[in-house]
Amino acid sequence: MKTSIDCIPCFVRQTLEATRFVSVYPSVHEGVLREILRCLAGLDLDQSPPVVGQMIHRKLRELTGNPDPYRNAKEHHNRLALEMLPELREQVKNSPDPLKASACLAITGNVVDLGAKHGLTENEVIANITRTLSEPFHIDIERLRKAIDRASSILYLADNAGEIVFDRLLIEELPAGRVTVAVRGGPVINDATVDDARAAGLNEIVRVIDNGSDAPGTILDDCGLEFQRRFNKADLIIAKGQGNYETLSDEKKNIFFLFRIKCGVVASHTGFKMGTNVLTGTSKTPG
Amino acid sequence: MKTSIDCIPCFVRQTLEATRFVSVYPSVHEGVLREILRCLAGLDLDQSPPVVGQMIHRKLRELTGNPDPYRNAKEHHNRLALEMLPELREQVKNSPDPLKASACLAITGNVVDLGAKHGLTENEVIANITRTLSEPFHIDIERLRKAIDRASSILYLADNAGEIVFDRLLIEELPAGRVTVAVRGGPVINDATVDDARAAGLNEIVRVIDNGSDAPGTILDDCGLEFQRRFNKADLIIAKGQGNYETLSDEKKNIFFLFRIKCGVVASHTGFKMGTNVLTGTSKTPG
Fold first, then answer.
1. Hey, are the CB atoms on A37 and B40 less than 8 Å from each other?
2. Is the CB of residue B147 less than 8 Å from the CB of residue B236?
3. Which end of chain A has the smaller Cβ count within 10 Å, N or C?
4. Taking CA atoms, what residue in B is nearest to A5?
5. What distance in Å separates the CA atoms of residue A156 and residue A66, rounded to the nearest whole number?
6. Shortest Cα distance from B175 to chain A (angstroms)?
7. Percent of chain A, pLDDT > 70?
8. Which of B13, B42, B45 sits opposite A9 (nearest CB)?
9. What are the two backbone dihedrals, phi and then psi, of residue B95, each rounded to the nearest 5 degrees?
10. What is the sign, positive or negative, of the torsion defined by CA atoms of B29, A244, A235, A149?
11. Does the pLDDT value for residue A124 go beyond 80?
12. What is the DSSP letter of B4?
């Protein structure tokens, strides 16, 4: 999807929040903000919104000299989620529809959006999950089930650290041996990289690759050739999070998006209300 | 007060809202937004926030070719407020402290902030007033009363159209013959100009002047010489609205500000909580 001018005020707010997260120096906050305002003034709105996220966080890493400012937060979120994993796995196993239960929890992991929050406690995470599970879901599980049955090659695009532990529940329900999980090629916000996939233990159960890009989404032109090849070859792509939706919604592939509608622009693009937890496919699975 | 970098996301949001209010053309929305982003990138943060409001709305008038895009809204707000005036005046007369009652209603007029809302109905305005009167007030009425008793020359700085009708209630409680009301020198947002002062009937009871500036506040350097002279000569200045606070809070004059704290930056600058309705003086009135 393209960027809306309604994204611009949000980019500016996100820039300020992010720069304060990664640096205590007001001169850095001001410098980053001014540079991003200049970039936004000339922004190509035909690009998808994560292009700006990539730009903001490259600038933050450059100006702070910190190649991975969210590293500690990501590790904290992985640890919290891992502590909850055995109980959540039990929930899935005891569910009448483990695929659906695990898909809902995977979306919930996206909702928790450990994002820019420093000291999130386990209780807060549990409260978020409980609240989210009581909110509207739009889950097209039968179409996904059929697509999984037919697919010989499934590419699972992860989103954030912490959340990637929740993804494991859904990945465990997919046919072993046919799944590849892709993470970001480099640190950007709290998005999952190979370190986080390893922390979630995914490398023990599936093949894990990185996409070669440091965008908070999947900008295909910016991804590595190996990733592009796997993307093109996959029969089924399961894409987590709004950033992956924003960058891949126009692709002519068999993609299922699992995410929460977090802003008005995506709400209007999808036709779902803000706050809806969605599992939806772009292209029709034949039959 | 100076501009905070926290004002920047708010300026961007306001730009988008205002440009949509004054034009239906997406090309105008995008053009104004890009130009304001460029200006914000190089903004002198030592200036007060209304400098940006002035810049945004000059640009909007230039690009739309409309010298007063909020004219209809202002007339609508004046009419609504005038319909309520007799009943509100009755309330003030029957109050045990008419000065305090009229001051509270004058602040309430600022709260109603008919701002960018097109089709505000009388019922909505009444609901806003009722809600506001039930919210926290911090009214330093005894200091104001003393200052009024001592002043031989009072300058009353109005804020918005519609609100200026509420101001009339307070102005009627001030000593006749010693009051001058100043409005903006040219249209900016829904701020009151001489047309609105006339609509409120203020020219029949006090001297009305304009300040020679089209800023949504009182940027002294930008005001006309006649206004500057009156400002310097006045013993007491009563300034309505957050814009007048933002531009005059550092002046070494006997100024009483009547406004609602509408944003976190001003809340932190004043020490009052967001949403507080305030009547407060900058300089101490001796004794």
1. yes
2. yes
3. C
4. B30
5. 29
6. 46
7. 95
8. B13
9. -80, 150
10. negative
11. no
12. P
Q: Give the model's pLDDT for residue B118.
A: 53
User: How far is it, in rounded angstroms, from Cα B1 to Cα B248?
Assistant: 8
Cβ <8 Å between B9 and A29: no
Which residue has better confidence, B286 or A143? A143
Strands B236-240 and B207-210: unpaired
DSSP secondary structure, B107-135, as one string: HHHHHH--TT-SS--HHHHHHHHHHHHTS
Using one digit for the tens of pLDDT, what is the confidence trace for A35-45? 999 999 999 99
Of A81, A91, A57, nearest in space to A189 by CA: A57
Return the exposure string of A190-211: e unless at least 16 CB atoms fall within 10 Å of the residue's CB, then b: bbbbbbbbebbebeebbebbbb
Who contacts A209 (Cβ-Cβ below 8 Å, separation ≥6)? A180, A181, A182, A183, A226, A227, A230
Which chain A residues are Cβ-neighbours of B34 within 8 angstroms? 41-42
Helix (H, G, I), strand (E, B) or coil at B3: coil
Whole-complex ipTM: 0.86
In chain B, which residues have their Cβ closer than 8 Å to the Cβ of A41?
34-35, 37-38, 41
CB contacts < 8 A, A to B, total: 47
**Are the Cβ atoms of A37 and B33 closer than 8 angstroms?**
no
What does the pLDDT average to over B151-162? 96
B71-281 classified as CATH 3.40.50.10880: yes
Residue B114: the pLDDT is: 47
Interface contact A8-B16, CB threshold 8 A: yes
Chain A residues with CB-CB distance to B under 8 A? 5-6, 8-9, 12-13, 16, 26, 29-30, 33-35, 37-38, 40-42, 45
Mean pLDDT of chain A: 91
CB contact under 8 A, B5 and A16: yes
